[in-house]
Design a protein that fits this description.
alpha+beta
């Protein structure tokens, strides 16, 4: 594993140098460039939003201090380790009328929310039983800069894509998806909860994993090229419950993963039985997973948790998403 990390560190350095000389492709040419592999997206820097004032060297801890100061100024009393804090952070992304929108650090607060909710919210159990785990994870995350997060995510994405392309079928179990069974489960529990599984504050990936499992994909404790395993028994693995790890795990398993930056291109290329993974263009943080349960013409319908939805029109759900995210289509 150490040897593999060294090899991919060299790969990452090469890609990082390529990024420094990237020319941003105008929006008018975006459609012609669609359907790219992860490495193509990274090398052309199309997943990164072009906000020239965004300082990637800002630490998440510093941004949280500003968020808390803003809360205090507006008499908002919320414990940063509480469930209410996640709801408050979610509002930065989903609520266009939130009171922080007109501040000079709004873009940072929104990116902080995407990363924090994806990395912390998805491990925080609804009954609050793992407070110590959450506290330690918070402490480590707040030490990092946006650039640290971005580099971690790029390295993970490139490494797992390479591992997924290695032709070694004996190392992989059968992971075929019974689409009809997966769709049935997704529609049944899109607005509910299967008591056989725990519930997390951010439950989208936990639910996506359940869909795959009830679609006939066998759980495995074996670690693949992503460094993750995929199981729910005896405490769910990170790839079972974290969006970024779910995406990198299945990429390493050799699934077909392509990135799209327009609503029309996602609708043209996604089909029933595909998972859609939302990736921030600033930090490459994959922060949400949803599942396509129906397609009528070019119209997609999805089922998901966080927010809970069952076979709902993606046109409505996705409003504004592609302004700030790349969507990765994961085909089983």
């Amino acid at each position: 594993m150490r040897m593999k990390k060294k090899i991919f560190s060299l790969l990452f350095c090469g890609v990082a140098l390529a990024l420094m000389g990237t020319i941003v492709i105008p929006a008018s040419n975006a459609y012609a460039e669609e359907g790219k592999t992860i490495s193509e997206l990274v090398k052309t820097d199309e997943m990164k939003r072009t906000i020239s004032t965004f300082n990637l060297n800002e630490t998440l801890g510093n941004i949280e201090m500003k968020i808390i100061a803003h809360m205090n100024e507006n008499a908002i009393k919320i414990d940063p380790e509480s469930f209410e804090y996640f709801e408050y952070l979610d509002g930065f992304v989903v609520n266009e009328n939130n009171i922080i929108k007109n501040t000079d650090f709004y873009e940072y607060a929104k990116e902080f929310s995407i990363i924090y909710v994806a990395r912390i919210g998805a491990i925080q159990e609804a009954d609050g039983s793992n407070k110590e785990e959450v506290s330690l994870a918070r402490e480590e995350l707040l030490k990092k800069s946006f650039n640290d997060i971005k580099n971690e995510n790029i390295s993970d994405l490139l490494e797992t894509e390479t591992m997924g392309s290695i032709n070694n079928p004996m190392s992989r179990r059968s992971t075929a998806l019974n689409v009809a069974n997966a769709v049935k489960y997704a529609k049944t529990y899109g607005k509910g909860h299967n008591i056989a599984f725990p519930v997390y504050k951010e439950d989208c990936t936990n639910f996506a994993s359940q869909i795959a499992f009830y679609g006939g994909v066998e759980q495995s404790s074996k670690v693949n090229g992503s460094g993750n395993s995929w199981f729910s028994t005896s405490g769910a693995s990170t790839a079972w419950k974290l969006a970024h790890n779910f995406a990198t795990y299945w990429t390493a398993e050799g699934k077909n993963v392509r990135g799209y930056t327009t609503v029309s291109s996602v609708k043209a290329n996604a089909t029933v039985g595909n998972f859609l993974a939302y990736s921030s263009r600033n930090s490459y943080q994959i922060h949400h997973i949803t599942f396509v349960t129906q397609k009528v013409g070019s119209k997609l319908y999805i089922s998901q948790h966080s927010t809970n939805r069952s076979n709902e029109d993606w046109d409505i759900v996705s409003a504004g998403v592609l302004n700030e995210d790349t969507v990765l289509i994961i085909k089983f």
